[in-house]
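ingest -> fold -> write
write: protein_1
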Amino acid sequence: MRSVQEIRGGKIEQQGQIAEKARERCRRPMANLRLAIDSAFWDLNVSSPQLIEGTAKAVPGEPSPLALATTARTIRPLQLSFLANALPLGLIPSLAPSTSKDVGSFAIQSFLFTPSADNWWMALVGQFRPKKLITNIKKEVELGLETFRHGDELEWSQLKRFAKHFVDKSLYAVGFFSQLSLTTDTSLLFNVENHGDKVGRRTKAMLLHKLENHDVTLEAAWPELFVDSKGSYWNVPTSISLDVSSLIPDSGLGYRFGLHKNDGQPQALNSPSSGIPLTLLPGLCAKAAFSYEKSIDLWRKPEKDSKARKSVEELDEYSYDVRLGEPHAAISGIVGGTCAAWFGGDKSTNATVGYQQDVSEAGQSVILNSKRRNRFSADMFGSLLYTLQLGEFKKDFIDLTRIDARFDIHSASSFVKDAAYLISDIVKGRVDREMNPLASPKFNLILQQQVAGPIVFRMDSRISLGCPSQKQLSRVEDVMFGLSYSFRLLQSGKILAWFSPTRKETMIELRLFEF
């Protein structure tokens, strides 16, 4: 992981080996395919401005999130350190609806300070939501003008009340982050944040260890924030996970296994829901998954070797992003299986838990669906991806058009069962049944188009193709829009601003050597 000093000045040194690995990975469009296996586990982070940390967990057992929604590999404080130098006044804006309506959605983050040593660093990040302050000041100004119109003088209590609005804790949030490199292969990350408009603090610790052919991750959070496919957020009081994943090559067999434990009843944060996801209920889950990947180039125009870059003047001859520097067409696929065993927890989800609408009010309830969580489950999944890229992303105009079209079957058993229902309905007559969202195949489409120079517009969408047995028509489930600015000096680095209409959120991120 790069140090704060390297990112802080925006002068990350070019690293030939990293660039070569990135170039090799870009020849195989596997990043989108691996969402299938990643979404089966609880360590799939998605970007979210709800927390200063900038991430939330995707609810396992649901359709995989859009590729644009997956979080950056560079942790948030290091992103903010870079963005503070790239954006005016060092302020990073975001749009994140709050549970307290008077606080507003618009927020501004600022990177405060970051002491560091050879194997350790810490960072302090502040956040400010100005809507409530502006509204209150406007009221105070109107009240003051009304006082002057009547010929009265401002009283000390009025001035004191005016100043008190600036120290309203609901306007502010603060986050503390730290990383300690125990060895060259082991790192410990810790962060805690407190939001003035919410009750309690959020704490997370993560231990990362790299083996020769595996990555080991031990993570604990209290509480943990999850987001489902409909954009609803859930708080799980305590979540602990241990994941071991193999280093998957461009093609071939990969696997992962782990343990996940939840404690406490999940709580909906931003909207009442008709049912809590079964995978968020208390209990211990042992999981394992495997996958086999294969990619075939239909055609490809290789880019020049990145080692030929000898001076800044020669940079214009190369792509703004080494991962988008080779026009090509390719077909890739992944097929795999998962199995899970649950221990402990409630056998049935017939229960009622509180739904907290804001800091001051609670008591609304979420009635859970009368479903049972299977003690043991096994399933298959598969994805097929077609990629077409035109242009080398070198010129200032009309030099990049890219389409990624992916067809997903998240649950082979649900898909086959739905097909059997369709045949039964044809032979014996239609029967009303509850629809399983995983039975419907998903079509994911990513469009990228160069606007001018290093600026690229991107749109990600997920379309449900419908369940034949339910005669359900195809519909758009989710869509996201993004605008990125790539830096040639970083070889594969860009500032990305995205907007999610489903979640009504906007966020600015730094992404390095990522799709």
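write: protein_2
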Amino acid sequence: MALFANHNSVYVALHISLIHYLFSFFDFTSPVAGIGASVGSASGLIPSYDVLYYTGVRAYFSEEWEKAAELLEKSMTTREALFRTRRQCHEECLPAGHDRLPKLDTEKGNVWDLWAVDWVQRRAECVRFCLGRAVTPAGQLPVSADIEYEFSTRNPYNFLQLGKVQKAASAAHTFFVANPSHLEMRNNIEKYRRMEGVTEDAFQDREMETEKHWALYDSALTSEASSDWTHAVEKWRECVNETLRQTDECRAQCEVASQRLPESRGEDGMDGVFEKAAALSLSLLSCHQACVTQVATRPGRISAQEDLLPTQLEHLHIAQFKAGDLGGAVRSLRSLLLFYPSDKDSLSNLELYTETLGGDTEAHGTKPSQEIARYVSRSLQEKKLLYFGMENLNFNFTDPDLWTPEKVVPELLRDTWRAEKEVLNEKMKEGEKEVEMDDSGFYAGGPVPQVGVTISMDDNSLNGTNRVMLDGVLDQKECDTVLRLATAAASAGDGYRGRRSPHTPHEKFEGLTVLRAVKLAQDGMVNQSDAKLLHEMGERVRTLLHSYFRSPSGLHFSDTHLVCRSAITGDQEGRLDLSHPVHVDNCLLEPETRQCWREPPAFTHRDLSAVLYLNDDFDGGELFFTDRDAKTVTARVKPTCGRLVGFSSGPVNPHGVTAVTAGCRCALALWFTKEKQHRDMEREEAETLWAADGQSVTKGGEVREEGREGTAAPARSGRSGSQSSRSRGRGRVTGGKDEL
């Protein structure tokens, strides 16, 4: 579609283009009869869900629990019914007034606009009649942005922890999926897991159906990891189709829901009818484009996965090739080339596939997918209209796609567009550098304030940044004492939500926290001195690392966990897995793109990590560091009694643990934070219990730099430090959140 040169006719031209655009993809062959007959229900018209929600919340705070639960549940089912009805009305009203469209192409003179108005009125009458058959007048009114925010963040489930514990646990889990940094809900879920009558089935996401494409995405990645290419093809194909369906669903809600004019184009503004019509139309198209971001954002994430659909197509064509479906691989690859027609890797792959097929791809029906071709064509036409609105109508639009071709962007906007792309490319290049800067605020090389402790390896010998290995932190007697404590008190699955084998089925994991050790000591089940030593070891580690890494601020315990991992006898032959996969402790590592997303469910508040080893009488179990590709090993550490490894928790230090193939490996894992609000409250509770018994222990307050006040950073309200990337690699997202 050509852009318009005559600015005097810009509004008329834009109006015509929008009408042609809106109907260039519609199928007008279905009959109009029966509109509205399929929506609604025998129980009556759909009411206003925001009123139900308000009333339910009011009942909750009045402690009318049964009434609150009923109204809150009804508000969610009513909202779903309303959205479903809107979508049905949208689909059933597509043909309304289509007989007027040819007039827009053939009518001369000054009456073409009357035909356009006639079409608009017929479409409006159809939608109004359809909705009126199923929805109350109040239910058709737009709800406030605050109410939409409540539902988009799943807040109704926050109130639904009522009644039977099984249902309460399900509500808590569903809320937590979208709010993984909600500490109170995390604690609630742990309490539910310990309650009698609560099974694992309760912890299912009730909103999973609306996010089905992510479940398919993860399932496809899992199949790839196990080289099950046939299953991977099936799941990637389903994932692509579901992503397209979710996008269409989102776009339908844009078209049938009330669209508000931008603030500068309100009813009291100075614009005329055409200006307001253009502004409303552009607002609609902008909503369509925003669906790309909405569908590409996982629950609980703030940032979207860039290039979600092209990424899926890339995975699909590779899986099809490896599964032997060359025709399907070519078709998927040609679909991918609609997004990136000059991508060298894709063109090279196409040449390989074509040669493998004997050069005759047409005989195998290898044209691009019609659905993808329609998606790209529709999106490009939307972008042309939106960029025209940016250039000439002062409309604000943020393009959600990296694949947008430069020719779509008007000449006057290209410099800004290129600059933004260049910034993005520079960020991506920085992520690929072999030598990386660590922004943690730690600076290795400080003194070691404990007699007998030696620096065995530093940054140079460990081939990294802010890494250290210290020996002599514990003597053999102390190691034996803590090993005896672990044998007596460690519980299978402790610290792993009861999972005995959280990382590999070939090993059993047992753990013990300081608080549990204190309680067992109070009950006389373990020695008081052994529990105190476990606590004191953590203080010793913090003092050493705070000094060595020259922390400029307070350093608080974030978590302390004594963990033993034992090889399961008779289940070690042919093992190729790791005891703990490669991960980063405070962000989600994406090896193929070399990005690390500092956002939930990673423990983003962790700043410094440490592991203090207790024994070496086992096989395997070595700690190793890698490059961001999670493959290139940069350093290895063999455990032994009293050996301490410390490192900054960020993306410069991906690490993992090799398989424990014989014996039992025990170590104390510790994490520290500079943010006081994320300190380990369990540790402080243990210290309080000791104080109540008149026991003397070193308090777990913050370690401060000499002569400097320790300060805590402001509380975070969302994700920080994340990066956008093209994310077209075949890497799996992994997160470091368990023990070393």
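write: annotation protein_2
Confidence is low (pLDDT under 50) at residues 1-43, 430-435, 492-503, 701-738.
The radius of gyration is 30 Å.
pipeline exit 0
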